[in-house]
Design brief:
By secondary structure, the protein is an alpha+beta fold. Helix content is 35%, strand content 27%. It contains 5 helices and 6 strands. The protein has a 6-stranded antiparallel β-sheet, covered by helices on one side. Helix 1 crosses helix 4. It starts with 7 loop residues before the first helix and ends with a helix.
Length: 135
Amino acid sequence: MATDDVPDHLLVQARAIALDLPEAAEVETWGHPTFRVRNKIFAGIGASDGQGSTSFSPDELGDRIITMTMKAAPGEQESLLASGSPFFRPRYVGQRGWIGIVIDDDTDWAEVEELVLDSYCAIAPKTLSRQLIED
């Protein structure tokens, strides 16, 4: 799925959060935007048909959903999964501690921002992560 598969207002929100972090960059990979620090992915957003990249079935979410994925803070993945929707274990990276969240018009962007920040701090070099703490 390409960047234009994500509604503009959702992509703008995701970019505002991710690209505000030190040395963050957007790179289209696997057909959707990924956010990176020094070429390491800390978050991604994309459209899905409910199959392949999520553990939801199309019947649960409709034909097309928007999701974001990011690395969860240690111990947080299971807690988020236990809370249920909108969280899910993303295929391929879920077993490595990543969390997925369905993004829509009701998304709590403050929560997404916290999750993206945790992911960034887990992925970024410590010198960059410390910049966030010092600010």
